[in-house]
């Protein structure tokens, strides 16, 4: 007779916290010898239904280089974490953070991306941030590449389309692994690596003047170079400090078939495979067979060096992290009627939506955790999950965001259910603990945080930090290790 106790609570040492990206919070885009990043030449969307992440051309880049303001490029100003990091980290500590996910701006360390020596001023900034986190016992979880590669590499070699970018990246990772080997334990190589299929935001490669077929070739070749760079960085990091835990990161959205018709079920399976292709390589260490047909049907030919397959096999990650905001519905018709930005597939009539049209599906997170655990059997880490909403600072000086509390509560409940199901879940860093510039639209008005930042879409405001109602709620959640929701 088989009988084994199952976990009924979040494990001791669970990494509760919040997640951010350098290009969305830091600001200080042109100080201390920092170079321009790809994120800082992407214009603000004209309305929140638009996505500007990949609508970048050679002409728009030149226009951005000649424009030395932050008006049209809000990621240049962020929320000035660069000058407010002590205040912000103190607030995170007040909530009881065990972990804070942040990224290192590559162009703060190597301004053009290909210098022989790093920029000491940039390295010193992150030393100071990590020391401040250590003061409060907060573990940094560091993303090495989060949509912010040096623009110089785009101009010189079209970003990740060039294999030369692998060596540029490894020079960067060697420097930061070595510099922070005693200050950082948890690392991730690429944020949402599947974003490479969206174009410029993930690849740093300009391809807007190409045909769809040419774009796919560039994007999948670029992501191959990222796979190799990630695998080599994992090996490099473990050689520098064998205690490092280095993970991959996927933008995950479970896809449901629209009906029980087998053609819809198969269509949803294909969508799912195209998403999990990325983690199949980074966790399992090899290209999955199911992509061979996709590549052949789209005339994609991946150019590999002789030892690439061995590199991928030897450079698998220690854990799998992912973002989870929504689920999708797929039918064989290929129809896409999602109203919100970044919504793929069809609307699910059983789900409500956020202010930005993202469908809210807490149970989908439990489904995702179970599926990923069953498939990979490596520790999982939810490193992004949150609600972008129109928050109002009321006359009483407070933000009453009960809707955010409800959203997060329902997702945390499902994480606990997944742990009871047997999933090995190591942490949860919600997105983003403090209001920041939106990745998809460069808006400020799409707010996620427990902390309100007084700044509007045009950059006006005092930058004052104000605790929302959700701040005290999350503090209670962390104090109870997820028991008091």
From TrEMBL:
Entry keyword Hydrolase: yes
Alphabetical keyword list: Glycosidase, Hydrolase
Identification of the protein by name: Aryl-phospho-beta-D-glucosidase BglH
Domain of life: Bacteria
Organism this protein belongs to: Pediococcus claussenii (strain ATCC BAA-344 / DSM 14800 / JCM 18046 / KCTC 3811 / LMG 21948 / P06)
InterPro entries in the record: GH (IPR017853), GH_1_N_CS (IPR033132), Glyco_hydro_1 (IPR001360), Glyco_hydro_1_AS (IPR018120)
BP terms from Gene Ontology: carbohydrate catabolic process
Positions of the catalytic residues: 384 (nucleophile)
Gene: bglH
Any single Pfam family the record assigns to this protein: Glyco_hydro_1
Family to which this protein belongs: Belongs to the glycosyl hydrolase 1 family.
GO molecular function: beta-glucosidase activity
GO cellular component, one term: cytosol
């Amino acid at each position: 007779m088989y009988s084994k106790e199952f976990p009924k609570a979040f494990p001791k040492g669970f990494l509760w916290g919040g997640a951010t990206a350098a290009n969305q919070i830091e600001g200080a885009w042109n100080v201390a010898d920092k170079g321009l990043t790809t994120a800082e030449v992407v214009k603000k969307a004209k309305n929140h239904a638009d996505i500007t992440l990949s609508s970048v051309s050679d002409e728009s880049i030149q226009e951005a280089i000649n424009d030395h303001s932050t008006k049209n490029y809000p990621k240049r100003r962020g929320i000035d974490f660069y000058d407010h990091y002590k205040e912000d980290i103190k607030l995170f500590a007040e909530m009881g953070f065990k972990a804070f996910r942040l990224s290192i701006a590559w162009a703060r360390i190597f301004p053009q991306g290909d210098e022989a020596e790093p920029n000491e001023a940039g390295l010193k900034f992150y030393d100071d941030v990590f020391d401040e986190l250590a003061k409060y016992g907060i573990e940094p979880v560091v993303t090495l590449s989060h949509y912010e590669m040096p623009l110089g590499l785009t101009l010189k070699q079209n970003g990740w389309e060039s294999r030369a970018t692998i060596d540029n990246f490894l020079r960067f990772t060697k420097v930061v692994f070595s510099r922070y080997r005693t200050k950082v334990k948890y690392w991730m190589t690429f944020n949402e690596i599947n974003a490479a299929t969206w174009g410029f935001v993930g690849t740093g490669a300009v391809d807007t003047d190409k045909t769809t077929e040419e774009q796919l070739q560039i994007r999948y070749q670029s992501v191959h170079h990222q796979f190799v760079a990630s695998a080599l960085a994992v090996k490099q990091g473990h050689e520098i400090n064998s205690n490092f835990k280095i993970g991959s990161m996927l933008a995950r959205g479970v896809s449901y078939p629209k009906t029980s018709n087998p053609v819809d079920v198969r269509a949803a399976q294909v969508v799912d495979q195209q998403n999990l292709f990325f983690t199949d390589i980074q966790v399992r260490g090899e290209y999955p067979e199911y992509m061979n047909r996709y590549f052949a049907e789209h005339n994609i030919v991946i150019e590999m060096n002789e030892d690439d397959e061995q590199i991928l096999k030897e450079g698998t990650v220690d854990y799998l992290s992912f973002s989870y905001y929504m689920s999708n519905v797929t039918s064989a018709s290929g129809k896409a009627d999602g109203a919100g930005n970044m919504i793929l597939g069809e609307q699910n009539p059983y789900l409500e939506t956020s202010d930005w049209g993202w469908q809210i599906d807490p149970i989908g997170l439990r489904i995702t955790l179970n599926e990923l655990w069953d498939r990979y059997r490596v520790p999982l880490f939810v490193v992004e999950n949150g609600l972008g909403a129109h928050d109002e600072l009321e006359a009483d000086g407070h933000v009453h965001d009960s809707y955010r509390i409800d959203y997060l509560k329902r997702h945390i409940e499902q994480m606990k259910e997944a742990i009871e199901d047997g999933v090995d879940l190591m942490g949860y860093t919600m997105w983003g603990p403090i209001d920041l510039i939106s990745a998809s639209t460069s808006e400020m008005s799409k707010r996620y945080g427990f902390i309100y930042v007084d700044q509007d879409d045009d950059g006006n405001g005092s930058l004052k930090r104000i605790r929302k109602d959700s701040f005290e709620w999350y503090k209670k959640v962390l104090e109870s290790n997820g028991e008091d929701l």
